[in-house]
Every structure is written in structure tokens, then in C-alpha cells.
DNA sequence: CAGTATCCTTGCGGATACTG
DNA sequence: CAGTATCCGCAAGGATACTG
């Protein structure tokens, strides 16, 4: 039904009116994890493969530099979406895991993510047409 | 049920394995609309208030500069999420509207957005604790 | 092994002034 | 009215080298 979509859009008004209040910045920052280069990948890998060490994560995320992996992990940890545990051993060993909050966020991002993937051809064509004008 | 969440996470694997293919960049760019300063606001306003002129949009988005509004509109138009119509009149008049694709994206972003809003307090506290260490 | 430190380029977001 | 043009600071993302 078309009206069910309209209803959802209307329902959303209450949230988007909050776009203009003080901590609108905080919300956008959390949301920005969705657009960041490695955040979604880290969340997903930790969500499906369980806790992993730094080096293991690196191998999953082909192409990530140490700098960017560390940055991403710190950001996600700061927002409580992953946890970090440093076994203080001589041979260093640090393990990262997704938190319950991280799983909640991941579950709410996946529908959007999968929709974008299935729509990739549409976007490619639309952009090509736009750029050629 | 806890297992239903696990199932969803597993289900998602097929998508995130695509993280490493060629147009992964395109997908993240589309997703980046979620984290951009004005994109979600524009989509929402056009989605609930119908087609609007440039100046009207400006009044809805308190604080937006002309430069950023124009940039945001161009990006959204390039991805086919909004449409632009220029009535070629002497008194200039340009109207923007959300497209069907834009509505689809908006509908898939709102659950994530609303979840973040209701979790804002959690994030504030988590960050405060992280920053104090 | 799990990071830092340094340098670089690109794009975001904003301020201000100007225009068909 | 609906934009451009120009300048700025800042953060993302990456390359490369180094370290406890």
C-alpha cells in the first residue's frame, strides 16, 4: 500500500523536528559511522566472527592501513559500539569485540546497506547521466 | 528471541562480503548521505512537505548557508534522490522535489535515525566516560 | 604484535561578497 | 530569487617510516 509509506514518513516528523536542537551534532556523528570508510566493515566482522585481535581484523579488511584501522577502532570504542581488551602480556595481544549497542546499530544499518547494494546499478546510471550534462 | 538477531547478522554476510569489490566506493558514497550535515534534513523536508523552492528550503533548514544548501542539493540530485525543476522565468523560480528513490532511501534511514535519537543519552555518557580516561 | 609519528591530498562546512 | 566565487579551518583517508 502506498499510504503505509506516507504514514511512515509522517510518523518520522517527530524525529526530524529534533534536527535543530542542541545535540543534533552528536546524532549526526553517530550516524556518520555509516558513511565512514571502515566502520561498517569492522562492526560487521566483529558481529559475525566474534572477538578478534588487531592483526586478524587487519587481514579481514583488505587494504586498511594501520593508522586508519586504529582510528576507526578508537572512534567505535568511544561510542561504545565495540570494546577493547588488552591482555597485558609480553607478546602483545589486544582483542576487540562488538558490544550489545554495536549489534543494535548494525542491525539497524543493514537494511539500508543492503538496499544500496541492490540499487547500485541505478545509482551508477543516474550519476553517469548527471555527469554527462 | 536472541537467535533471530543472530540469524539476521548471518543473513547479512552475503552483503558485507561485497565490501571488497570494485564499486564499494559508490556504496559508501551513497551511504554517506546519512552522515552529511544537511542531506537527511533536505530529504525529510521534501518527503513530508512536498516540492519546495530553494528559498523555502533555506527557511526550513535554519543555519544553512547558500553554498552548503546548493552543494547538498547538487549531491542529492546527482544520486537521483531529489529532482530539480527550473521554471525559466524572469523572476527566477526553481523547485526541488523528492524522487521515488529518495523516498526509498529515506524510509530505510529513518529507523536508524530514530534509534540514534532515542539512544542519545547512552552515547553522551559513553563518550564522556571514554574521554575522561 | 599492536600500534605512533609525520606528511600529504581531498573534501566538508562555513563566512563573506558578488551576480544574472 | 537562486545561486557563484573566493577564502578559510578542520577532519578523513592514505603513504611511509618508526617503536615498546
Automatic annotation (TrEMBL), chains A, B:
PROSITE patterns: HTH_HXLR. One of its GO terms (molecular function) is DNA binding. Residues 16-124 form the HTH hxlR-type domain. InterPro entries: HTH_HxlR, WH-like_DNA-bd_sf, WH_DNA-bd_sf. The keyword Transcription applies. Keywords: DNA-binding, Transcription, Transcription regulation. The keyword DNA-binding applies. Transmembrane segments: none annotated. This is DNA-binding transcriptional regulator, HxlR family. It comes from Kosakonia arachidis. The lineage of its organism: Bacteria, Pseudomonadati, Pseudomonadota, Gammaproteobacteria, Enterobacterales.
Amino acid at each position: 500500500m502506498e499510504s503505509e509509506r506516507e504514514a511512515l514518513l509522517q510518523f518520522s516528523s517527530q524525529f526530524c523536528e529534533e534536527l535543530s536542537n542542541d545535540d543534533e551534532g552528536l546524532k549526526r556523528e553517530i550516524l556518520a559511522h555509516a558513511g565512514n570508510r571502515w566502520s561498517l566493515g569492522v562492526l560487521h566482522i566483529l558481529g559475525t566472527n566474534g572477538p578478534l585481535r588487531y592483526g586478524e581484523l587487519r587481514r579481514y579488511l583488505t587494504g586498511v592501513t594501520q593508522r586508519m584501522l586504529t582510528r576507526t577502532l578508537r572512534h567505535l570504542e568511544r561510542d561504545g559500539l565495540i570494546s577493547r581488551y588488552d591482555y597485558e602480556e609480553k607478546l602483545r595481544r589486544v582483542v576487540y569485540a562488538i558490544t550489545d549497542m554495536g549489534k543494535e546499530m548494525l542491525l539497524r544499518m543493514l537494511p539500508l546497506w543492503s538496499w544500496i547494494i541492490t540499487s547500485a546499478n541505478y545509482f551508477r546510471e543516474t550519476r553517469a547521466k548527471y555527469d554527462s550534462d
